[in-house]
Specification:
The chain has a single domain, classed as NAD(P)-binding Rossmann-like Domain (Rossmann fold, 3-Layer(aba) Sandwich), CATH 3.40.50. The chain is built from nine helices and seven strands, in the order E-H-E-H-E-H-E-H-E-H-E-H-H-E-H-H. It has a seven-stranded parallel β-sheet with strand order 3-2-1-4-5-6-7, with helices on both faces. Helix 8 crosses helix 9. It has about 260 residues and is α/β, with parallel strands linked by helices.
Length: about 260
């Protein structure tokens, strides 16, 4: 899909990857751009930089997502690209609270369900549409430092795959953005695992460029880090070997943390 003349919505669009997507999409000559974020002043700031329409939206609230879609349709008459980009992470394994697990589930998974429910009927009526979900490499591999993030991002990927199969023959395309480390506020430089990941971190601009090219090619998996594809292939070939490798990496990170 070419973005020129299209209408795009980006959740979590006020900063990080979301803002970079908004700015890069705008450069393609959109007809309309909606920047949705929980932080309205930040969304307004981002909108000023790329002629977008800022809308406050809590993606974990279905009514908010429905309102976002309705307002966009009322303003521009169509939604060609809906980017479910908003996401959160909380550190921890079994000790993580039920509340943290639920919050990650609501933002990382249910927000995608809410978006699909709200926007797919309009896309079916217009005969075309595109869904982009920011999943993370954790959805293909795993996340050592957060059980909840790993689990919800696997679910995020699974739901996107289901959408692609269910609606692909109806003119709706789906892509999953699966970067590894990206230079955003989500990188915790005091954490040994994030320090390891940060070595291969790329800029949000590089991610946005990968997305534009991936959407043009209508790729299901958009992988800004090419080695993620290699790791995913190795995992598929031998899960046991992959798990042992991740165990070794975890031990290495724990030793580094103890020594700090």
């Amino acid at each position: 899909m070419q973005l020129a003349g299209k209408v795009a919505v980006v959740t979590g669009g006020a900063q990080g990857i979301g803002r970079a997507l908004c700015e890069r999409f705008a450069a393609e000559g959109l007809k309309g751009l909606v920047i949705a974020d929980l932080d309205l002043p930040a969304a307004e700031n981002a909108a000023a930089a790329c002629s977008g329409l800022p809308i406050r939206c809590d993606v974990s609230n279905e009514a908010d997502v429905q309102s976002l879609v309705s307002r966009t349709l009322a303003e521009f008459g169509a939604i060609d690209l809906f980017c479910s980009n908003a996401g959160i992470t909380v550190k921890g394994g079994l000790e993580a609270s039920n509340a943290d697990w639920q919050r990650m589930w609501d933002v990382n998974v249910m927000s995608r369900v809410y978006a699909a429910r709200a926007v797919i009927p309009a896309m079916l009526n217009q005969g075309s549409g595109y869904l982009l979900q920011t999943v993370s490499a954790a959805g293909l591999l795993t996340e050592i430092g957060s059980a909840g993030y790993a689990a919800t991002k696997h679910a995020d990927l699974a739901f996107a795959e289901w959408l692609a199969i269910e609606y692909g023959r109806s003119g709706i395309r789906v892509s999953c953005l699966c970067p590894m480390a990206v230079s955003t506020a989500m990188i915790d430089h005091s954490d040994s695992i994030h320090q390891y990941l940060n070595v291969s971190a790329i800029s949000v601009e590089d991610v946005a460029e990968s997305v534009v090219r991936g959407i043009e090619a209508e790729q299901f998996l958009i992988l800004p880090h090419q080695h993620v594809a290699e790791y995913f292939q190795l995992k598929a070939q031998d899960f046991d070997r992959s798990n042992r490798g991740m165990q070794r990496l975890r031990e290495k990170m724990l030793r580094r943390r103890r020594a700090a």
